[in-house]
Amino acid sequence: MDRIGENDCGVTKPEGVRVTGNRRALRDIKNLVGAPLHPCAVTKRASTDKSNLGHKNPTFVPRRPRTRKFAATLANKSQADGHHEHIGNERKHDPQIPSLLSSSSLDTCTATDTNEHGLSEELPMPMAEETEEMDISDPEEVEMENLAVEMIPDIDSCDSKDPLAAVDYVEDIYSFYRQIEVTSCVGPDYMSNQFDINEKMRAILIDWLIEVHYKFELMDETLFLTINIIDRFLERQTVLRKKLQLVGVTAMLLACKYEEVSVPVVEDLILISDRAYTRNEVLAMEKLILKTLQFNMSVPTPYVFMRRFLKAAQSDIQLELLSFFIMELCLVEYKMLKFRPSLLAAAAIYTAQCTLKGFKHWNKTCELHTAYPEDRLLECSMLMVGFHLKAGTGKLTGVHRKYSTFKYGCAAKSEPALFLLNAGL
User: Where is the Cyclin C-terminal domain (predicted)?
Assistant: First the structure.
């Protein structure tokens, strides 16, 4: 036997084998039935299937999902003789295992040592454990599961090309918001620690700030952050009655600095408060609020969740305006502090949908993205319907007047969903 080359140490060239280039040509495979249709379709790992032990040419089983009928076929074939002609004849009569034609393209695979029949002894057979891993359930069940998944639309597909939408991270962002939203909440009874103010004074202040916000044409985020700053500050710091309005205008100044592009100047806020405070008092209160809140302005308010949940509801402008009208009615009410921002947002949209449609409406998409089923929203929604019913009455009508304008679609003039008041909890 001759040496092939000085770079192939220890490798000898068998007699009768033609060498072409750097590889050895395959011997005649004699068109054996069962050869794979596609070259290199089988891995090089040796088989340990007990049904093939003792056979020089192991049974060739095509890889396919293992159904019950196919499993029975494999069990029967594991006891059959491993001769290739016998395998070929058996496959001709078996409707479950299609016949595979040999292909001359097999020479594209890496050459291996062949046995006397021309087949590689290293060709692996799928083991019983491997076929179990490929086992699938009933195709009809799989099809129904896929159909159920497809019924829930991808609400972010329309923004896939918008880098500002952060489609790749939006689910993680809102998951983080849910984890930290408790940090933006206050105790529902914090007014008990105040000795000179009460919840009615708070309602008067917020109703006035909503009008100021509307007059200055500020962003929606600014209003929600302003009220959040006020509540978190009042929970930690006692305030005199005559300083409550100062807390309100200063909180709005801080929210404007955080959210707005064009920030109102201090003199504008002093003027809007009828010059009740000086510039130095406003700046001093600003320092006190920031120190009390430890400069934490990044909290998820109901507005953050409103934008996401409205997208999940596939809202139009009418639903959006009515949802924000209901939500701003809740900002005035002290009793609504017991609900989380995400729950308030989901309940506002649910109540608005029921108001416009005239019946209960909360689909699977809304439930998926809000993580609130309908029964979790009913308590909060019933309170919102009550606020909607009395929005135009009493002394605090700032929200009603704002949403009675044409700019806000006259959302305040819609009929409240009174049927929700009779809904069982």
Answer: 300-417
CA–CA gap between residue 207 and residue 328 (Å, rounded)? 9
What residue ranges of the chain have pLDDT lower than 70? 1-150, 423-425
Cα 130 from Cα 134, distance rounded (Å)? 7
CA 129, distance to chain mean position in Å, is: 35
* CATH number attached to the domain at 188-292: 1.10.472.10
Q: What is the dihedral of CA 68, 69, 72, 73, to 10 degrees?
A: -140
Are 32 and 117 a contacting pair, CB within 8 Å?
yes
Written as six digits, the tokens of 401 are 């007047």
Report whether 397 contacts 334 (CB < 8 A).
no
> DSSP of 231-280, one letter per residue?
HHHHHHS---GGGHHHHHHHHHHHHHHHH-SSPPPHHHHHHHTTT-S-HH
Q: Say what the pLDDT of residue 87 is.
A: 44
- Residue 32: what pLDDT? 47
Residues with Cβ within 8 Å of residue 219, at least 6 apart in sequence: 259, 260
User: Which residues make up the CATH 1.10.472.10 domain(s) of the chain?
Assistant: 188-292, 302-422
Give the side-chain half-sphere CA count within 13 A for 163: 0
The CATH code that applies to domain 302-422 is 1.10.472.10
SS3 35: coil
pLDDT of residue 78: 56
Give the integer Cα–Cα distance in Å for 194 and 418. 36
Residue 101 burial class via C-beta count within 10 angstroms: exposed 0-12, middle 13-18, buried 19 and up: exposed
pLDDT score recorded for residue 7 = 47
Model confidence over 199-221: pLDDT tens digits? 999 999 999 999 999 999 999 99
Instruction: Extract the tokens encoding 37.
Output: 């249709």
Q: What is the pLDDT of residue 62?
A: 47
